[in-house]
Task: structure prediction
Amino acid sequence: MNYLDKLESKSIYIIREAYAQFRKVAMLWSIGKDSTTLLWLTRKAFFGKIPFPVMHIDTTYKFKEIYEFRDKYTKKWALDLIVAKNENAISKGVCPEKGKFKCCNELKTNALKIAIEKHKFRALYLAIRRDEHGIRAKERIFSPRDECFEWDYKNQPPELWDQYKTKIAQEEHIRVHPLLGWREIDIWEYIKREKIPAVSLYFAKENKRYRSIGCETCCSPIESSADTMEKIIEELKTSKISERSGRAQDKESAYMMQKLRSLGYM
Amino acid sequence: MIDSSNIKFVIVGHVDHGKSTLIGRLLYDTNSLPADKIEEIRKTSKDLGRETEFAYLLDHLEEERRQGITIDTTQVFFKTNKRHYVIIDAPGHVEFVKNMITGASQAEAAVLIIDVKEGVKEQTKRHAYILSLLGLNQVIVTLNKMDLRDFREERFNEVKKQVQEFLNSINVEPTFYIPICAIKGDNVVEKSKNMNWYKGPTFAESLDTLKNRESAEDKALIFPIQDIYKINDKRIAVGKVETGIIRKAQALKVLPSGQITKVRSIEKFQHNVNTGYAGESIGITTCDPVFLARGNVICEPENEPVLTDVFKANIFWMSKKHLRKAEKIVLKCATQETSCKVEEISKRINSSSLQVLEENSDSLKNLEIGEVRIKTKNPISIKKFSEVEALGRFTLVQDEDICAGGIITNYV
Result:
């Protein structure tokens, strides 16, 4: 097995493990490269038929390319898609201009809270990676959240070998992170090898491309001429800029990401 | 072109002996850091009124930075000219030993760091013992803060002897002892000009001698079943091949039932394959309609693990709630899960001093090691840890939490 085969096998093991333990699960699909890779791996784990819903947390501020991609592949891969919105906050006019922390917390974290309560999910798959952010690097593969959604990062459960925290109280849920050990470049190498479709925003137009995508309002493109997967991989081998440098929610203050995540942010 | 496969190593040692600083220095000196990350560290250090603190590259939690300690384990990527690495940082504080074990259980090799000013301390010993318990036998020792002892060879030799004596007593044989000053970079990536008496490799050079864990393909087949999926009228048993190779048409034995059948097909989505190798997540279908369920272990007839409900083990207890002899808890070994009880605690051992605290004990406390006999409710398939790791290691679950890790030392 080569390096990518090993990553793939390990992720599939984790995906199957969480389903075996909890059954009532869902996958978060932001339509970005990581969660689309996770979706691909999940299709492989279940031989093409994902036996649970795929959930898109829609802030309504996403790029139009994201919505088009979502609708196209939901149909093509016959996904059971849930679109989760915090309608109440949206109608009250919560938006990034009035405060990024509140906006992320309301339109992402609380939208997710509402959806979990409604559907009673016990576990959620998320495509976060350790190399994206120092706070995410502290995560477990199976990471519990209490009834208030809080991440008790000072008291995480032990995780030995392939044995994860699989017993939880009724009011808790588990965040499952099958891609935690992947690097950004591994994702692109795998996308290339498997011919996984990717949103066009990742590829350079007029010397600009997005390296990480989310809400149109809070993402900035990087200078780049990489307009193919091969060129993106080459660019990552030499880049000295971190992946999420264009993401506003990582920047506002040194611990904004920690505060968002401790309240249940992805 | 360097190989993109990597090796994972963990850095362990007593609190404040310089684990996070060593990693930070290594990343900085090998040019592994994005410019905006360095800028972020400079700014945060300044805001907290400190010199640029490399440990902040890993200590990302606000509490970690304010208190200058590592609370939880983390992993970072890094490469030399030779290959890629995953570095696992582990906290050195006694309160966070369970986080240290979490990190160390994922590693293939370990680096033990010791402050030459302080020498061997409580967590140095405990961490070294945990490495031996986990079967990590590739160990590099770095003796840090040489600058605080004027880079003197005598002090290096003194501490080295102290470390050696302890490691010998637990059968750990390090490949190198390296004198370093992590904060200034001496012998980390660059050879130190302050320690010309030292002729061995730098820390970065020593890493390139580490070897990946051997492939388990040559061993007898062990395929623990994770789940059963019904897909288009096929019943597919999925799981990860732990050791050996599984081939289409080969004979199989299912434990614990003892049923014998043959492999009808190996299933991988959109791939036509006839074999599954150790480490691979696959599915199989069988020729006969045998009953299969999660927790069954598939093997070759005549080459089977031991099916038993009692065995001897060493366990490391890591919960504030004591383990009481004969209390009902849950055991998880590969995909097998059964209730069990520790029916005998023949020795209760202090995990730092390794002193036997009590023989034939009735309980085990936080951070103690027990030499125990375990009785499971249902028979399970096991091997000694020294023979097949996947069936020789287990966790114990009390209430809802993993509270111990253990390795099987002998059959009864």
Q: What stands out?
A: The beta strands of chain A are 25-28, 54-57, 81-84, 123-125, 142-145, 173-176, 208-209, 222-223.
